[in-house]
Specification:
Blueprint (H helix, E strand, L loop, with lengths): L4 E7 L4 H13 L5 E7 L15 E2 H5 L8 H6 L3 E4 L9 H14 L5 E5 L1 H13 L4 E6 L10 H15 L4 E5 L1 H9 L8 E4 L12 H8 L7 E5 L8 H11 L4 E5 L5 H10 L6 E5 L4 H4 L5 E4 L8 H8 L4 E4 L4 H4 L7 E3 L4 H13 L1 H13 L7 H13 L35 H12 L5
Parallel strand pairs: 1-2, 1-5, 2-4, 5-6, 6-7, 7-8, 9-10, 9-12, 10-11, 12-13, 13-14
Antiparallel strand pairs: 3-4
Helix pairs in contact: 1-16, 4-5, 9-10, 9-14
Length: about 450
């Protein structure tokens, strides 16, 4: 085997939808061409404990996994794995400094650094640029700010992202709406960003409704409205419960997932008098096998990118009701592949679910149309092909004539690519030589 291109996939939490997309993309790459190391952080800083410096590898990296963490799956598939305990999703200046230092040491030996999500995207790209990594790629799973944040924080995040654009060679956006928003806000030049789709695992075994209900402890004949996701502010769990209550007096509910608002969700269920017919089942690794238990899938999110779980629900043949946020309408086309409601309107969420339960022919028609729209763009192989082209600069969008429209702020356009010589920065000459060695077909 010749010199493989060394890729670091850096993500704050290797979990949930973004983690699944990152891992499926890494596993879809040709191992004869690419040597991938997955780098992730910790879920949170435990009270009373300071952030731990350094990098954990192997069993030590796997020993501190949270429920839903996918690092063990990456290791089992043969990928190298690293964990940086100081890389946390929440703002933590002292921990962020430790994480940046660890990333700067770790990333120096890679040909490509591909970051995901806000915190890993900021620290990872800054560290990779500092160490002269020849190719820096970032995936936007959604915008790194939302309306629930204070205005000053949204402004700060926007400025940081615009500055990081000048340290990024290529962008990927999960969904066309996310790509358009990134261009509109000046986070990426139109010619430097391309759209990808929320890939999910290949089609599972045929759906078995009865087996799925047995797994969840549900009675066989009851109507069930379910959802899957982290129980946090983004997913609006209290709105979901209120919507369930509005859907009818005999409807059962299932939430698959866990998170910081679990207690608040449980309390709202009790206050609504739904305890006897709501199942909060926590994290599960068998989500595709559980989805056939649902008669309707509801998504109450306040903001989203393009959720993988919607693709999984559609693939399982479950009709969908979702909030009309961000890239969700690219999947849920009203009155064609499902129903959309405004965010923060649980009574409308419940009314839409009640309609699909009352109109089974309509529900089946939506579900069939949704499943038929899931083409090979949602398969891991398609993402693997995009990543390979992006990592090597083949069909690089930066070389094309830029599309009209707003770009990043002056001075924040993508750097010259490694094939044309990187912009001067620490380690640049060494990094450029390493890149040429890795991509030269004569080296084998």
């Amino acid at each position: 085997m010749g010199h493989r291109i060394r890729v670091a996939t850096v993500i704050t939490r290797l979990a949930a939808g973004a983690g699944g997309v990152a891992l499926r993309g890494a596993l879809a790459l040709d191992p004869e061409r690419f040597a991938v190391t997955v780098v992730t952080g910790a879920a949170a800083l435990f009270p009373g404990r300071s952030a731990r410096p350094g990098v954990l590898a192997g069993d030590a990296a796997l020993a501190v996994a949270e429920p839903g963490d996918l690092l063990a799956r990456a290791a089992a598939a043969g990928l190298a794995v690293r964990r940086i305990p100081a890389l946390l999703p929440q703002p933590a200046p002292a921990a962020d400094a430790l994480a940046f230092a660890a990333l700067a040491r770790l990333l120096a030996d890679f040909d490509v650094v591909h970051t995901h999500c806000a915190k890993a995207g900021a620290l990872g790209r800054a560290a990779a640029y500092r160490r002269g990594v020849p190719r820096i790629v970032h995936t936007l799973h959604g915008l790194p700010w939302h309306d629930d944040q204070p205005a000053w924080r949204r402004l700060a995040y926007r400025r940081i992202e615009r500055r990081l654009a000048g340290r990024t060679d290529a962008f990927l956006a999960v969904g066309a709406a996310v790509r358009a928003a990134a261009i509109r806000h000046g986070l990426a030049a139109p010619g430097a960003i391309r759209t990808i789709w929320p890939v999910v695992d290949p089609d599972p075994a045929p759906a078995d409704r009865a087996a799925a209900r047995r797994r969840l402890g549900l009675p066989a004949g009851v109507p069930v409205v379910g959802t899957v996701g982290r129980i946090d502010t983004q997913k609006a769990p209290l709105d979901w419960v209120d919507g369930l209550a509005a859907s009818g007096p005999s409807i059962w509910g299932v939430w698959v997932g866990d998170g910081p608002l679990r207690a608040a969700l449980r309390d709202r269920v009790a206050r609504r008098g739904l305890t006897d017919r709501v199942r909060l089942v926590g994290h599960r690794d068998d989500v595709p096998a559980l989805l056939p238990a649902f008669d309707v899938f509801t998504l109450a999110s306040r903001y989203e990118g393009m959720p993988c779980v919607l693709v999984e629900a559609m693939r399982a043949g479950v009709p969908v009701v979702a909030t009309a946020v961000d890239a969700v309408p690219e999947l849920v086309v009203p009155e064609v592949t499902g129903l959309l409601v405004p965010p923060g309107r649980p009574e409308l969420l419940g009314r839409a679910a009640r309609r699909l339960l009352a109109e089974p022919d309509t529900a089946r028609r939506f579900a069939a149309a949704a499943a038929n729209r899931l083409d090979d763009r949602y398969e891991p192989a398609a993402l693997g092909a995009v990543l390979a082209a992006t990592y090597t600069g083949v069909d690089d969008a930066r070389d094309a004539e830029p599309a009209p429209g707003p770009g990043p702020a002056p001075g924040t356009g993508p750097r010259p690519g490694p094939e044309r010589g990187p912009a001067p920065r620490p380690g640049g000459d060494r990094a450029a030589r390493r890149w040429r060695d890795a991509t030269d077909p004569a080296v084998s």
